[in-house]
Write a structure and sequence with these properties.
The protein has about 475 residues and is mostly beta strands. Helices cover about 10% and strands about 30% of the residues. Among the domains are: about 35-120, no CATH class; about 145-200 and about 290-460, Methylamine Dehydrogenase, Chain H. Keywords: Nucleus, Repeat, Ribosome biogenesis, rRNA processing, WD repeat.
Amino acid sequence: MIFGIVVEYVRAIRKGLIKFDQPKEDPRFYSLWGDDSNSANRTKHLAYIPPPKPKLPGHEGSYNPSLEYIPTQEEINSYQLMYEEDRPRFIPRRFTSFRSIPAYENAVKDSFERCLDLYLCPRVWKKRINIDPESLKPKLPNKKDLRPYPFACYLEYKGHVGAVLSISVEPSGQWIASGSKDGTVRIWEVETGRCLRVWEIGEVVQHVAWNPLPAHPILAVSAGADVLILNTGFGNEEEQKEIKNLLHIGTPTSDDSDDMSSYLSWLQDEQHDCIRLRHYRLSKRLTQRFPFKLHGLPVSLAFHPTRSIFFVATKKNVRVYDMLKQKLIKKLETQLREVSSIAVHPAGDNVIVGSKEGKLRWFDMDLSSKPYQNLDCHRKDITNVTFHRSYPLFASCSDDGTAYVFHGMVYADLNENPRIVPLEILRGHTSSDGRGVLDCTFNPRQPWLFTAGADSTIKLYCH
């Protein structure tokens, strides 16, 4: 009989007449404004984020706080000058008993703003990643591995009375020429600091430059509206004979007489053993007009070291022209307020631009027309920037009285980006009339840097 009852139960279970542990149906709706205590169930429907808890009151919220929490009348008056969102929510007051506390006048307003925050302000999960700030800095090589570079003042050249505006080193690195505001041009011996030549020009000397050919040690000087080609007197008798032939003034030919208005006369200056000119063309000693239309006032110019490419820096941009094809190749966007100087790398593919706001821009000509690297180093105007001819060095000088030396390695592999590392800050000149270091240049054969300052001195920095 028991066996028969069991068989009936088994048949009823198979037919579904008897059910065990029926699954509960999940509610299809949930209360949006319900209690947050059962928040575990809400996560089944959506990624629920509980609202932030309101800030609990502190000691200043007590009905009888300490005197240090009670503001003075001056502090209460200062609250009225603040923006409404910056003012404190309430001013602490003291009451003798708990029954003396009046109703909070902003209770309804605070509750309404709280509801608006919960309703209108979305809440999202933010994953915080703990990153070490030191890991974000670029890995720079050790300065000891980048030597040699100039860092110590070795010699001073004194003799000028006014500010030294320009300096230039002879290609062999043996002599250095300087032009000053006192109207003189001086030639110094680099290793000893002895002054070898002095020319009284009579006008402010804006710029001096040596002939890039060591066989003809002549010096070009810009003073006022004239350009003087000086015979320095260096070299043997044969070299001096060639120099005098170069400085001999020729008469214009019949082919040139048709365009007499296009050139100015060359003047023989016997006082300084030089020739004086105003505009020239190297082939026929005539003026040649720039064949391009400039958009802006030219600030600085530079030639490509090996190709017939001309760089013209205006106040905003740098325009690159091909002199043979007579067309614009590229326009470099400096993103600066006013450009002050420009220098071209000896390889010719990189350019640095200095500005009057103390910023440097490094351009990679093969990469883009926008700056590859931005360097904010000086506090005042940058007066000059320069590259070293053989070492991976470049420098900048400024009116703040400092000169910065950088390591700038340019690789032959086009897949390698230039490596720029700041090396040294040279502080040796004193400011005068708001001017600091006015010019800087490297020695062509040594990692030495020359700086000219408004304090009438020239300094040599060595490694």
